[in-house]
Amino acid sequence: MTGRRLSRTMRGVRHLVLGLGAVVMLAPFVVMVATSLKPKDEIFTPEFHLLPHRLGAAENYHEALTQVPLLHFLLNGVIVTAAIFVLQVLVNVPAAYALAKLRFRGRSTLFGAVLVCLLIPYQATALPIYILFHWLGLLNTYAALVLPFTISVFGIFLMRQFFLGVPDDLIDAARIDGMSEYGIVWSVMAPAAIPALVAFGIFSVVAHWNDYFWPLIAVGEQGLYTPPLGIAHLKLNGEGTAYGPLMAAATIVIAPLVIAFLVAQRRFVEGIVFTGLKG
Amino acid sequence: MAESSPRRAGTLNVLLLTMPAVLLMLVFLVGPLLCVIALSFTDYQLGAPSLSLIGLANYEEMNEDATVRISVLNTLIYVAVVVPASVALGLGAALLIEADRGLRGFYRSAYFLPVMATLIAMAIVWGFMLDPRIGAVNFGLKWLGLEPLDFLHDRKLVLFTLCGIGIWQSVGFNMVLFMAGLTAIPSELYEAAAVDGARHGPSRFALVTWPMLAPVTLFTVVITAIRAFQVFDTVQVLTGGGPNKASEVLLHTIYAEAFGFFRVGYASALVVVFLVFILALSVVRVFILEGRRPAP
């Protein structure tokens, strides 16, 4: 399709249709930011105007940050998503390497188990894990937010597929140099798999930064709230009509990922397509 | 050094590499899965000191439970609306955006942005936009000369409002999958089609694009359906399943039974139903996954 250009009329039609679509897609973002800048009396008017006449940003953002400890929630989000990703790499990359490049008894059984586990939606295991954590006294801890996601059969599957394409010569050379299998994983395979690791990282961070279901179940103390829990709390327990601060809080919560996306769009889209296999 | 095959690894090495993953798989995936199935045959309540086996009683109760019936029906309606709409719009957006170079990057980002943005935050923004008195959407309706609507409290409307938010959120995801599929179509096919007389949009689409995109389309339909079955965030924060169960969906019912009424046994039986739906779709997905070549 490349290199072909549409006729002038068709170009106009294309912009018209895509432009209208873009308005719908972007409207919530525009309204959110615009409302976060408005003082209260301008939000509750019978007339619609998008841009604020008078800036209310200071009050709204101040309120969003002080009514609940929003910055603390953001920090929790960073801690939890980072811990999940680091542990996912440590746990799943070695297993993926073994499945891709080593021959051992039980390999096909293990890979079969990975494929079967790929089918399990994470909401289905939430109840027993909740009860387990209750027994272990782990509810309301960072561990509760992180541990269930340290195993990622999807990560194993993805990395295995990528490792299959890494030439055996690289591994053999490392073995002749006397490197251990564990050393090979981190000094030979992981560096060769940077694109796959980046894609998996983007997928993992997006999924867990935005996750609401599990944190809602696992955590009840405000000190451990992740950003999605924090904003839902503000909406459900705060003044239902304090839209200015609420929109300010929403802006703050989505800002890190949206900014990262706008800076590195290509990587994000590739990462999501690459990992789009996952439901 | 002496091994016959350099790739035959020692047992110790294999254990070292795979043990953490295997153990965690047992603790967090296989174990809980078996556990939830077992719990579905019990009357276990959160915090109760004991439990007893009650056979199929939970499943029998479910059969009579009007809430569950509404919830399953609503979930199916949600899936039946969101999947075709977001797949078709995703395909349309991909085709239109790739058809020309003007503003391609802008459109691509604009349509993809909702995929990235925290859904629970954007659901709250939608809730504000749909407010019957001060919401932007109703200002729009009024401007068009239409009556304002109470999107989230009207029993006939609420489920479709949630469908709309679901579609808004998943179009971009489907779009990038289709874009990846489009770039994989060799341009020789279009040239060959042109020789055969298919020079214009619709005939090129019918002859080349659509058949070549068929596997991607099937795949997109399946994963969109799986994601749609898992609808929860928007319902929990915007409607709580109401008004009067009109937007009750499966995951929300499970959540309410387990953590609102502490009826873990009953909730587990509902999880089994949820699993059956997802598994039926997932089997298709794995067939497609397995048919794929290793990632490039």
Question: Overview of this structure, please?
Answer:
The complex is a heterodimer of chains A (279) and B (296). By secondary structure, chain A is an all-alpha fold. Chain A has a domain at 70-223 and 250-274: Orthogonal Bundle (MetI-like fold). Helix content of chain A is 72%, strand content 0%. Chain A has 15 helices and no strands. Chain A has helices spanning 8-36, 40-43, 57-67, 70-101, 107-117, 126-136, 142-146, 153-164, 168-176, 181-192, 194-210, 213-218, 227-237, 243-263, 265-274. The longest helix of chain A has 32 residues, at 70-101. Chain A is globular. Chain B has 296 residues and is an all-alpha fold. Chain B has a single domain, classed as Orthogonal Bundle (MetI-like fold), CATH 1.10.3720.10. Chain B is built from twelve helices and no strands.
In the CATH hierarchy, what is the class of the domain at 70-223 and 250-274 in chain A?
Mainly Alpha
Indicate the low-confidence ranges of chain B by residue numbers: 1-6
Total E-strand runs of chain B: 0
Might you state the CATH topology name of chain B? MetI-like fold
Specify which chain pair forms the largest interface: A-B, 111 and 111 residues
Report the average pLDDT across residues of chain A: 88
Number of domains of chain B: 1
Helix content bin of chain A: over 70%
Describe the structure in brief.
The complex is a heterodimer of chains A (279) and B (296). Chain A is mainly α and 279 residues long.
Task: Indicate the topology.
The complex is a heterodimer of chains A (279) and B (296).
Chain A: H1 8-36, H2 40-43, H3 57-67, H4 70-101, H5 107-117, H6 126-136, H7 142-146, H8 153-164, H9 168-176, H10 181-192, H11 194-210, H12 213-218, H13 227-237, H14 243-263, H15 265-274
Helix pairs in contact in A: 1-14, 3-14, 4-8, 4-11, 4-13, 5-8, 9-10, 11-15, 13-14, 14-15
Chain B: H1 11-39, H2 57-64, H3 66-98, H4 104-116, H5 119-129, H6 136-143, H7 158-183, H8 187-195, H9 201-229, H10 233-238, H11 250-260, H12 264-291
Helix pairs in contact in B: 1-12, 3-4, 3-7, 3-9, 4-7, 7-9, 9-12, 11-12
